What we know:
Layout: H1 2-33, H2 41-44, E1 47-48, E2 54-55, E3 81-89, E4 94-99, E5 105-109, H3 110-113, E6 122-130, E7 133-141
Antiparallel strand pairs: 1-2, 3-4, 3-6, 4-5, 6-7
Amino acid sequence: MAKSQQTFRKKENAKQKQIKKKNKKERREFNKTSNNKGKSLEEMYAYVDEFGNISNTPPTEVYKFKESDLHKPTINEDEFLFGKVSYYNEAGHYGFIRDNISKETVYFNDSLAGMILRIDQKVKYKYIRSKQGNQISTVELM
């Protein structure tokens, strides 16, 4: 009796293995037929239309960039800008001033400022553009 139960279990296990093999083979065949690999580069492109929607068709007309598209505020060099010291490195004696309106940062060091500035001090300043970026030309405490 024990022998017949053992052979019955062996037969059931063999059936389960066959079913698993069959399912695995079917999944493998399905994955081969629905494979996304090997597409050409043009098929993988995605385009963005004028409304910001993604599509698979290329745009019909190219947008011409105009200078007026930039919304950069014009700065009068005679006027002072207002900001506060957002970063200061005491070891290097340099830091950055963040503008209140545009949130741009301007570099300064103690020799350029002519004084020692500290974090969160409110200042009014003028700056110039250099090769390294914006740096202050004059600064006054408020």
